[in-house]
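Ticket #4471: structure output looks truncated?

Reporter: J.K.
Steps to reproduce: submitted the chain below (102 residues) through the standard prediction queue, then opened the result file.
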Amino acid sequence: DRELFFNSTVAARRRIDRKWQETPLSTLFTISDEWMALKQRAQAAFVRQAIKAKGLSPWEAFVAFDADNNSRLAPAELYGALRWLEVPELTSDDVVDFFELA
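Returned output as attached by the reporter:
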């Protein structure tokens, strides 16, 4: 009985069954530059280790970085935090890319 119900329900779908890669959404979920994504992941790993090395929990680090106490990190606050953590080869474009990809 359940199998018959499932088959009839699947057959009643209105949408054409297509993979998301074949739809316009693919541009939204596809990273144009994989090297940029790799760099961002490496920087994120460095930040996690640097916060841990400073003896801070992620929450303590966030509170310390949120200079205006609005519970959000602005690009300038994030840039200052990353410089304080001494992220290597950090540019302001890296911070902009982080916010665009987030």
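Triage note (M.O.): checked the attachment and the full token line is present. The longest helix spans residues 34-53.
Status: closed, working as intended.
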